[in-house]
Amino acid sequence: MLESVLGAINLGTIVLDHARRVVVWNRWMSQYSDLPAERVVGQDFFALFPDLNGKRIDSAVRQALRDNFPSVLSQTLHKAPFELFVNPAARAAGERMQQAVAVTPLEVPGMARHCLIQISDVSVAVHRERLLRDQALELRSQTFSDGLTGIANRRHFDVAMEKEMRRAKRSGTPLSLLMIDIDSFKPYNDHYGHQQGDDTLIKVAHALAAMLQRPADLIARYGGEEFAVILPEMTVEHSQALAEKMRERIAGLGIPHAKSELTGYVTVSIGLATHALEHPSDIAVLLGEADRALYMAKGAGRNRVVRFSAA
């Protein structure tokens, strides 16, 4: 009866005696370890599995036999201590079963203390957890990414802007903001159609994003054909030089624009404003200054960079 019960249990069951010899090795263990009970029973457990010697399972067994102390191995630190494989393909690939392991002392009447090791297959649960984590990351990515261009969206921009402004004020470092607008984009859309308009938005966004090399730099789609670029710890001079390169980069794409009054290809106008010790600001003020500079760039003929000046 006991053998039938142990064989029917859907988890690994190992019992060690006081000398750490295997006295029970159930059918589940034989199936997933590929070791029959007759080969294992009666053997020194840690002689059979020397790679477990000195590991957490070793100390857990010692604590159970000596101190009558039960243990549960952390799945985070000990994902697959036993060489168990869910199928031959996994064994060939060396992909161990994900395991939950519990070690429990056993008081046997008339005998020295024994130790029960229980092993559960948590591969499905781990896979489900990983899938949920990936889905959560994907959802977070969608929440903070623009659906069309793949760059940061307005929400992401607002969060990053607040964080970088706090950091700039705390550390006394500059913070520059670029507002970028595709010139004459409505006539472009009307002439070429919204599908081509979307394609151009994607090309412009990717070209601008590729020019940002520092981890903290951020480009976001601010709305419609307008983009915003956050440049932490960048002076107004360096920001203006980068903005000019961005303007040249978009012009260099050579995207035809039959409705452009000046160039015949797609261009951008850029407004620049900088928060600095000598010109302190807050988010609303900095946005307003960059927006006014952009408006001035448009009014001065487009396809240019204008830096906001309080003077």
Secondary structure: elements and pairs:
Blueprint (H helix, E strand, L loop, with lengths): L1 H7 L3 E5 L5 E4 L1 H7 L3 H4 L4 H4 L7 H12 L3 E2 L15 H6 L5 E8 L7 E8 L1 H22 L9 H18 L3 E8 L2 H8 L1 H16 L8 E6 L2 E7 L3 H18 L14 E8 L7 H17 L5 E3 L4
Helix pairs in contact: 9-10
Pfam family, one: PAS_4
EC number: 2.7.7.65
Catalytic activity: 2 GTP = 3',3'-c-di-GMP + 2 diphosphate
Describe this protein's structure.
45% of the residues lie in helices and 19% in strands. It has 311 residues and is of the alpha+beta class. It has two domains: 1-127, Beta-Lactamase (2-Layer Sandwich); 144-307, 2-Layer Sandwich (Alpha-Beta Plaits). A hairpin with a 2-residue loop joins β7 (218-223) and β8. The chain is elongated and about 100 Å long.
